């Protein structure tokens, strides 16, 4: 819907904010359940009720716990056209990109958790939002429940971030931690992480460092407002590691971690890397256990600011998506 209709709607506090949820999988189902089970929470925060218009999925016949089947649709485009806020949690580049682009061209507020899409097309999508008076909210795209985007964009807006460094992929950290602390052979740890659902069916994104590369590219771009193309991230994943590498790290008293780093280099550019590094045991990043994510932001005035938390999971990612729905809803009201 257009922003002018939204404005007239908000003149009456009881006109619902209409939310279209594109995706009802791990993250989408958790978002839908929160909106349906806690309507008073969101109504209080927005000053008007939230109406979940529908949940777009591929298979509408499959039952989804806590989501009435009447809300399911396999037509995300039509669903999105009726919404004040479009929430994209489908993943993949298309049709997600087209749906987000369409919503932004209508001046609608968009929330997305799609790091790969944002790392590739975030600059163009952000420009579309500005051009048409919409909004693009992407807290959940980087480190899920860890509110690093808000800290980079808002809390440190008056400071100068000099470096960003973190463990931003929980799946690989789970594998590395299992090898380092429990002595599980590397190949077995990868297999175990797959069996427990920590790795995707196609684990390449995690093991080759591509997921971490997308996140550090988005963070660098957000921190410094300069291009940080995904294909310029210098990436080495963990798939080439051997048990001998872990033994050598332990002998030095260190810990092997997959570290993502972004820093400014002369000429106003940024350097972004993702690679396995042997960290001293006392390094805060070395202490990340299991699937935990940690990021350290060095700022000129604030010094180091560290954030730790769950970088994945349905409810954990939903927490960030729901915060963005509240922000998006308030932006509709203020438009
Ligand atoms: N899972 C996490 O921990 C996590 C953390 C941070 C960010 N994210 C991001 O959040 C997004 C969603 O992740 P997820 O884990 O929830 O994925 P998922 O479990 O695979 O869910 C994807 C959902 O989108 C639906 N879908 C996919 N393509 C569709 C299409 N063409 N038309 C209609 N529906 C379609 C699927 O329908 P069916 O259910 O019928 O297949 C499913 O409901 C991704 O961008 C991911 O990178 C996830």
Mean pLDDT figure: 93
The CATH topology of the largest domain comes to Dihydrodipicolinate Reductase, domain 2
Q: What characterizes the major β-sheet?
A: 6 strands, parallel
Q: What's the level 1 CATH class of the largest domain?
A: Alpha Beta
Question: How do the helices and strands line up, and which of them pair or pack?
Answer:
Blueprint (H helix, E strand, L loop, with lengths): L2 H8 L6 E6 L3 H12 L1 H8 L3 E7 L15 E2 L2 H6 L3 E4 L7 H10 L3 E4 L2 H18 L2 E3 L10 H8 L5 E7 L2 H13 L3 H10 L8 H4 L2 H15 L9 E2 L7 H9 L2 E12 L3 E12 L11 E8 L3 E8 L3 H21 L1
Parallel strand pairs: 1-2, 1-4, 2-3, 4-5, 5-6, 8-10
Antiparallel strand pairs: 7-9, 7-11, 9-10, 11-12
Helix pairs in contact: 2-13, 5-6, 6-11, 8-9
Bound molecules: NADP nicotinamide-adenine-dinucleotide phosphate.
The site of NADP nicotinamide-adenine-dinucleotide phosphate has 24 residues, from helix 2.
